[in-house]
């Protein structure tokens, strides 16, 4: 599962206005080639969306549905019960990592300092989300990889078509793409999500 997530490289961070909005953004992101789908708990009835998308794409080994904005152990348990294959939060919680570990799930915590990164690594987290990515910048990955070359870092927040190549060159093992994916839905419909997804993949040289 971890290798599939890293091979897919792109995580669609989906903050749906409604259940159907989240599902449509996810479907059109997958059409565009982004196959890691992170349904955030800021989405109404997020667990239901995770369950329905997991069922819908159950025949696709390359599509992985997980949960984002997992702030508590209760939400972690709810996400896992709904079929989430990974958990992401904006912070590092040893308690959430323990829930994930017991369920043989994956937890990618948000970290912004080397101390947080090392703490998360020692707890067994296998990908560390760099958040907020727009504040830290690609140079942060290069700096961290100096003393800690083995850590897998995934920026989220601040990843754009203009800087995706820089993040990849700096050594990001994956990237999270949020509001940019759905930025044109209101004016151009859900097909725009597919086009933006393709543009990200092209800009990264994938």
UniProtKB/TrEMBL annotation:
GO molecular function terms attached to this record: (R,S)-4-hydroxy-2-oxoglutarate aldolase activity; 2-dehydro-3-deoxy-phosphogluconate aldolase activity
EC annotation from Swiss-Prot or TrEMBL: 4.1.2.14, 4.1.3.16
Keyword Cytoplasm carried by entry: no
Keywords: Carbohydrate metabolism, Lyase
EC top class named in words: lyase
Domain of life: Bacteria
Pathway: Carbohydrate acid metabolism
Family matches, as InterPro entries: Aldlse_KDPG_KHG (IPR000887), Aldolase_TIM (IPR013785)
Entry annotated with the keyword ATP-binding: no
UniProt cross-references to Pfam families, sorted A to Z: Aldolase
Assembly information from the UniProt record: Homotrimer.
Protein family: Belongs to the KHG/KDPG aldolase family.
Protein name: Bifunctional 4-hydroxy-2-oxoglutarate aldolase/2-dehydro-3-deoxy-phosphogluconate aldolase
Species in which this protein is naturally found: Streptococcus hillyeri
């Amino acid at each position: 599962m971890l290798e599939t997530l890293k091979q897919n490289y792109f995580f669609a961070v989906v903050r749906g206005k409604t259940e159907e909005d989240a599902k449509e953004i996810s479907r059109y992101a997958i059409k565009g080639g982004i196959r890691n789908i992170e349904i955030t708990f800021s989405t109404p009835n997020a667990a239901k969306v995770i369950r329905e998308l997991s069922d819908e794409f159950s025949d696709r080994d390359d599509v992985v549905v997980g949960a984002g904005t997992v702030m508590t152990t209760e939400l972690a348990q709810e996400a896992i019960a709904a079929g989430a294959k990974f958990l992401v939060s904006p912070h590092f919680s040893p308690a959430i990592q323990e829930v994930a570990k017991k369920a043989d799930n994956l937890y990618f915590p948000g970290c912004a300092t080397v101390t947080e990164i090392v703490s998360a690594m020692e707890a067994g987290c296998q990908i560390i989300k760099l958040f907020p990515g727009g504040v830290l910048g690609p140079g942060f990955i290069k700096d961290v990889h100096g003393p800690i070359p083995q850590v897998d870092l995934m920026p989220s927040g601040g990843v754009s078509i203009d800087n995706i190549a820089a993040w990849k060159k700096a050594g990001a093992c994956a990237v999270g793409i949020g509001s940019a994916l759905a930025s044109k839905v209101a004016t151009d419909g859900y097909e725009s999500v597919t086009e933006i997804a393709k543009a990200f993949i092209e800009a990264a040289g994938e």
